[in-house]
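Hi R.,

Here's the input for the uridine-5'-diphosphate complex you asked about:
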Amino acid sequence: MAKRILLKLSGEQLQGEFASGFDPKRARWIAEQIKPALSSGAEVVIMVGGGNYVRGNQIIGHGIQPVSAHNIGMLSTLMNAIALADVFNDAALPTRALSTVEINQFIDQYTFRRALSHIKKGRIVIVACGTGRPFLTTDTAALNLALEMQCDVVIKTTKVDGVYDKDPAKFPDAIKFDRLHYDQILTNPDITVMDKAAIGLAAEENKPVIICDLLTDGNIARAARGEIVGTLIS
Ligand code: UDP
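And here is the predicted structure with uridine-5'-diphosphate in place:
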């Protein structure tokens, strides 16, 4: 049983059935998925992505500088964190959103001690703005946060039920891995389920990462209990 989990939610998952933006129905469903994990004693830290609004790389050019583009990407995660925290609190899941970039008018600033204090009070902590630095992704930020917050495991939820040797949506003969060593991902350019920088950080610090399907009922709680779901990278 993992005591403290880092859950990475990408923007794509928060857009739910919509073409972009934030789907409150999906957010509420995620809240219900987290509840059993909390009641079985897990502590939950969440890193949110922003791809449902803007990924930095998509808007670089025509005068938009890379740093500005990534800053806008981080602001996308901020919108998700604000909305997600509201939906979670409304669903009776005590939650606080914190931002690694100072924007106190909107949400409190992330500090290690503040996040820990919320966690110790039984609250979920949602972290916005990734690392607060451009040219990175929220996958890498998730690993970094998991190390800082001493999370036992990182759970990244996706659209498919784990890691495959090729895209299962395109190739019916794709083979799913139940377990992978960090090196198998680092050396395989076809596996893009998580940034290499994030996997590299996980490998260096021996932090286990679980990749599993968000929409399979009970997956998050099972992964938090240490049951085998999706693909375990260790
Ligand atoms: N981003 C950044 N630094 C970080 C985290 C994110 O600059 O530490 C920017 C980056 O441009 C990224 C965007 O924020 O594309 C949104 O994050 P991400 O692409 O990881 O979102 P996801 O794909 O998980 O929805």
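One thing worth noting: The chain has one domain: 4-233.

Cheers,
M.
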